[in-house]
Amino acid sequence: MNGQPSNRPSRSIMPAVIARTKEQIHGDEEAGTELKLGEFQNVTSLTHSEARLLIQAVLSHRAKGPNADIGETEVLIKTKDYLEQFARFKKKENVSAVERLLQMEGGLASFEKSQLGTLCCETSEEAKTLIPSISDKKSDEDLQELLDEITKFRTFVE
Fold first, then answer.
1. Which residues are within 8 A (CB) of 107 and not within 5 positions of it... i.e. 6 or more apart?
2. What is the pLDDT of residues 3-29, one digit of tens each?
């Protein structure tokens, strides 16, 4: 090039894409030896088995009503598949029995109860390792008794 400006348009840097500001997540939620669940601290939580039954009931109700033609989204399908795979209790009677058993347990947060019903630990040591916040709330003997009761409602071939 001979030092003269070119007739070709120059490449310019595109301006930054303008987007809405994203709310910062503080990340102070923690399920360690002390439960720090932030805004979810006093919220009722469900086991995977309860969530599975709830979604089935909603979909069954929806199928009978005016919204029957609403299709299932990819997220809903994946959630149903996940819950079908990992829900420990498939029969409604067993889900209800475990829920009643866990509701009778005093001193445990809803989150801890739902974790016990979802994880179905075999030993109190395993439960206290996976759910550290229950370590000081239940003796090993009491926790083992609860875990044994939960296991009674589990059927391994359904």
1. 137, 138
2. 555 555 555 565 555 666 656 555 666
pTM of the full structure: 0.74
Q: What token pair was written down for 3? A: 């030092």
Q: In the block, which residue shows the tokens 């109700």?
A: 61
List, for the chain, all residue ranges whose pLDDT scores fall below the cut of 50. 158
How many angstroms separate the CA atoms of 77 and 58, rounded? Answer: 14
Give the start-to-end residue ranges of the domains of the chain: 44-152
For position 63, what pLDDT does the model report? 85
CATH superfamily of 44-152: RNA Polymerase II, Rpb4 subunit (1.20.1250.40)
